[in-house]
Amino acid sequence: MPQHPRLASFLRPCGLIWASMCLCWEGFKIAVRENGLGALTRLPQIRDAALATLFSRSSKGFIAFEDNTVVPSLVQAASGVVLELGPGPGNQLHRFNSSAIRVYGIEPNVYYRDVLEDKVKEHGLQDKYKVIGARLEDSDVLEEAGITEGSLDTVLCIQVLCSVQDPKKVMKQVWKLLKPGGKFIFWEHGWSKDPLTKVEQAILNPGWSTFVGCHMTRNVMVDILGAGDWENPEEIEAPEDPISVLPRIQGVLFKKA
């Protein structure tokens, strides 16, 4: 018997939570064998490694899902000097218009580094895409790469604001780094407008945020609009999806000149 759509929407994230829990447990057992009780001090690294393994293994599935969304066209809209926030396993690399860009991929999870570098080579982007192991808040590291206030034509953000520590701070930094007229391109998820779905998100969020590394209950729209003055905030799209616990908002915003 097929599942009710709402039930399926609720259970799908549970599968990802469980998969991450299993990988975290395996990583913890290895750390205990190698470091004894010292493994307890390595819990953040164990989770980062588990998440990198999980999302690298499931990369093809996520790419196939995004192929049926607005994501490919959003990535194609990136131009000039581009900063990609949190590229993870590099799901967007094949979608860039490589003739019109130079991209910096800012990825703080070191366990993605090898798979990301391999994909850069696979798509022939060695001269176009530079991986930087840092957070957006690490301004000294960014400055060494030439990323300074007003230096970027585009910032690309595909499901990243849900996982950063302080989305308001990150968005203010995004706005600073963009040139006047620069583009902020995004596809994010946050609170649902549906009351029942909000309850489901609140139930899932503790496990989701702990083991999948992002939050279901953020007001992403407020964080984006509060970063600074945008030319076209009315063009943000929030497609109706009342039963999804991961409802998206999307758009291309231009920094006021």
UniProtKB/TrEMBL annotation:
An example Gene Ontology molecular-function term: S-adenosylmethionine-dependent methyltransferase activity
Keywords carried by this UniProt record = Signal
Methyltransferase type domain spans which residues? 83-186
**Cross-referenced SUPFAM superfamilies, in alphabetical order?**
S-adenosyl-L-methionine-dependent methyltransferases
Q: Which CDD domains match?
A: AdoMet_MTases
- The answer to whether UniProt assigns keyword Secreted to this entry is no
InterPro entries in the record, alphabetically? Methyltransf_11, SAM-dependent_MTases_sf, Thiol_S-MT
- From which residue to which does the signal peptide run? 1-19
Protein name per its UniProtKB record? Methyltransferase type 11 domain-containing protein
Lineage of the source organism? Eukaryota, Fungi, Dikarya, Ascomycota, Pezizomycotina
